[in-house]
């Protein structure tokens, strides 16, 4: 196969992928990496066609513009990979094209075929090295696909350097004067095919991750659903954490939620649910899991040191919500929440028993007037005293604790006596 035929086939494949990715992006325009990769394959395809037309069109188009487009495509691929991982696109992606353009300003490079081959090889090598570095440092991803693609790019860089050295040693004046001209295409074609296959695998992995997330989260609030909470319970129960030997379940129920729906409509009710979940996400960040059980009921599962810590966290969320004003349309909504808390040693924790105990405590909190927390200990529910119920004289200065934590410690002592 001659070079022209190989370039045409390669260009056709690149342009086909460009069209397919653009069509994919047009269906879901939030996935910007698809548009970037579509543009990258488009630039690559046009650049390869211009290279193949060398001798039929001006050298400025078939050399300067063609290779600039190909090197820009590498930068666009790098930008797409950054977007794929949810990272910001940085200006360094245009470095490969800038190296090529800058090198062409030197007459000795511009007028010598072998010098241009070396310049292009170094420019593309820098681009592929940057892409490989990004693949090797992808945050929170399955490493094997990125590592394999990085290895493929490394092979391409080495073979391209060998090709450039051959052009210099033989004093080549064109592709045809190289010992084996068709070998010029092999490294690039290999890298292209391998990149497409591995890229497809990365997209498959991404789709699988998204499906798992969708299966375990509530579509309205983005919090975990019941299934997701069950999975998190198993994870936290098996987690080795000696300093936090207990597993706590915090069951929340928004107070008078039906009245909010009746007064503000379901849009207002949805806004309250979303706002509460956003507040809980901040409150429980790195502490444990939080999810929606259904309707206006929510739950959190977390490892704690004792009941005091669990009740402190629940009370913190309860009091913070009571101070919030949720705005939706023309409505300004204030809402409170009641909480029921249960606790078991992590090694022996049973989710059904935790739920039953937390439900019992939640019922007690509702019966006590709502907007409060209750804990269940040995089948007996006790209301958590609010910090406002205590005076400064009651505070335990010895431990320099907050008013809320001191109140909870008094409750724990009373329950154990």
UniProtKB/TrEMBL annotation:
This protein's UniProt keywords: Membrane, Transmembrane, Transmembrane helix
InterPro entries in the cross-refs: Diguanylate_Cyclase (IPR050469), GGDEF_dom (IPR000160), Nucleotide_cyclase (IPR029787), Rev_trsase/Diguanyl_cyclase (IPR043128)
SMART domains in the record: GGDEF
Start and end residues of each GGDEF domain: 245-378
Keyword Transmembrane helix recorded: yes
Protein EC: 2.7.7.65
Residue runs in coiled coils: none
Top-level taxon of origin: Bacteria
Keyword Metal-binding (UniProt): no
Enzyme class name: transferase
GO MF annotation, one: diguanylate cyclase activity
Residue intervals passing through the bilayer: 6-25, 32-53, 65-84, 91-109, 115-136, 148-172, 184-203
Catalytic activity entry: 2 GTP = 3',3'-c-di-GMP + 2 diphosphate
Pfam families: GGDEF
PANTHER family tied to this protein: DIGUANYLATE CYCLASE DGCM-RELATED, REGULATORY COMPONENTS OF SENSORY TRANSDUCTION SYSTEM
Database matches in NCBIfam families: GGDEF (TIGR00254)
Protein name, UniProt field: diguanylate cyclase
Source organism per UniProt: Pseudorhizobium pelagicum
The organism's taxonomic lineage, starting at the top: Bacteria, Pseudomonadati, Pseudomonadota, Alphaproteobacteria, Hyphomicrobiales
